[in-house]
Amino acid sequence: MADGGSNAAVLALVGALGGVLVTGAMSLITAALNQRWSERARVQASDESRVRARRDELRAACHAYLVAANRFYQALEEARRGEPADATERTRPAVTAMQDAYLYLTISAGARVRKLAQAYNTSQYELEAVGFDDRAAWDERVRIVNQRREELRAAMRADLGVED
User: Fold this and answer.
1) Alpha carbons 150 and 148: distance in angstroms, whole number
2) How far apart are CA 5 and CA 64, in angstroms?
3) How far apart are CA 159 and CA 62, in angstroms?
């Protein structure tokens, strides 16, 4: 009977040690997987943060440019209603602000936005060059300015991932 009790004790000890080994191994595997998943989640959060910061920077550049371009357009409208002799002086600060914002946009935005912003600038300069006496030519240039602004805004929204 001593042999039977001894065998049972050995089997119980082996079973207990086996259970401890299996539990320990599972704990190590779980810890390793948790560490890997945590690192993956940290990297993903960092990437998302970087993308969000880049999008915010682009949004700020787009906004600054559109505001400056709108001020130039408003200055042109004011100059058209005022004395033609001082039109250049009235629009110069707005042109400078628009050019500054455009430069920042060119280093922040994608190729399509840069190309459309350049076309929008050109349309505003062409509007200024039309002069204020020919109302039909002015109105046609305004239509082109508005069309180019809408194309630019659509491209900016697409770059920013904003859906209508």
Assistant:
1) 5
2) 87
3) 10
